[in-house]
Amino acid sequence: MGAKVAVLGAGSWGTALAAVAARRGNEVLLWGRRTEQVRKMFETRHNPDYLQHYELEQGITPTGDLAEAVRGSDVILVAVASSGIRDFSGYLAHEYPGGIPVVSVTKGLEPGTDLRMTQVLAERLGADSEGLLCALSGPNFAEEIIRGLPAGTVVACEDEGCAQRVQRILSGPCLRVYTSDDLVGVELGGALKNVYAIAVGIVQSLGLGVNIQSTLITRGLAELARLGVKMGAHPFTFAGLSGLGDMVLTCTSDLSRNRRAGLALGRGQGLEEVEAAGETVEGIRAARAVRDLAQRCDVEMPIAEQLYQILFAGKTPTAAVEELMERGARTEREEEFVMDSGILGGKHP
User: Fold this and answer.
1) How far apart are CA 25 and CA 170, in angstroms?
2) Euclidean distance between CA atoms 197 and 199, whole angstroms
């Protein structure tokens, strides 16, 4: 017998994950904030705002009642935008019964605080959620997931048994779910890779070739790992699905909004013009967050810094690339980082 799954947030990713859960034989309640959206999902069996061409699976029941969605659930998937997570989790706290996993599937950091999504949920849900907060992240575009194309992802939780519960509910022929105990690393990889996708889009638009694109992806991953380890993540996490996997996907795919934003910036469009195009570009907000975190943790992140200068300090992309290329010589291994992080000994920092 299947589980009861509450998917809170009827955007693209929430709708796609609801489909995944329903195809596994689970009972799924898909909660939407907007009354009109929920009504149309009931009447037409299509989400009128996201992934409109896909019929909702039989096992999905749309609802605008948060209490109804949560009541009796075996797992809760939170697919709410990072900018609204604090207010929403306050509402969720009134309905959350405790004792069941709460999985953040949102990639981002809270604006203003730079907190990870599970940190915000922990503050609002309190002791009832201890050991039950998870994050799901990986190289996953909603469009391909809802089509049933094969993909991999990772669910992280400090409690391995809790992660395995979520794994059993969502794993299937088209989505292979791995588990991790590195909540910090999995969330940081998903939240910050968008910064580097913008950078890759910029250099592609400038016609600087594919060599530099590959270099930015690789060295960007090294920057993320340096920051992640300082914040308590395991270094190996950044070689996995939520690190390297998501970085490669976001930096190279035409479906990536952040990469497309970089292409526009490289063509000379201004930040206001890019943001006015109507698509949410998570990497723009993340560029501020990664700079704040790098300064707070005293971590060198030159690519992220140069992107920040382009976005918010008027630096030209050409000048930023020149400055990156002219930095002082160093070894690739970055021996001090490798030794301190425990990579050589395989230890968790």
Assistant:
1) 10
2) 5
The span from the CA of 156 to the CA of 25, in Å, is 23
Q: Which residues contact 257 (CB under 8 A, 6 or more apart)?
A: 279, 280, 281, 282
Q: Which domain CATH number covers 207?
A: 1.10.1040.10
- Give the Cα separation of 24 and 27 in Å (integer): 9
Cβ neighbourhood burial of 112 (10 Å; 0-12, 13-18, 19+): exposed
Residue 226 belongs to some domain of the structure: yes
Domain count, the chain: 2
Q: Is residue 29 part of a domain?
A: yes
269 sits in which H/E element: none
Integer Cα distance of 153 and 70 in angstroms: 24
Boundary-marking domain end, from 138, 156, 181:
181
Whether this model's pTM surpasses 0.90: yes
pLDDT in tens, 157-168: 999 999 999 999
Tens-digit pLDDT profile for residues 111-140: 899 999 999 999 999 999 999 999 999 999
Q: Confirm whether 107 is a catalytic residue.
A: no
Residues 6+ apart with CB under 8 A from 1: none
Q: How far apart are alpha carbons 9 and 18 in whole angstroms?
A: 10
CA distance 65 to 31: 7
Class of residue 43 by CB neighbours under 10 A (exposed 0-12, middle 13-18, buried 19+): exposed
Give the residue ranges of DSSP H helices in the chain.
Answer: 12-23, 35-44, 66-70, 85-95, 117-125, 142-147, 160-170, 183-205, 210-230, 246-252, 257-266, 271-275, 282-297, 302-312, 317-325, 335-341
CA–CA separation, 80 and 86 (whole Å): 10
Residues in the chain: 349
Please check whether residues 145 and 85 belong to one and the same domain.
yes
- Any idea what the CATH number is for the domain that residue 13 is in? 3.40.50.720
Question: Are 92 and 163 in the same domain?
Answer: yes
Catalytic: which of 40, 193, 315, 347?
193
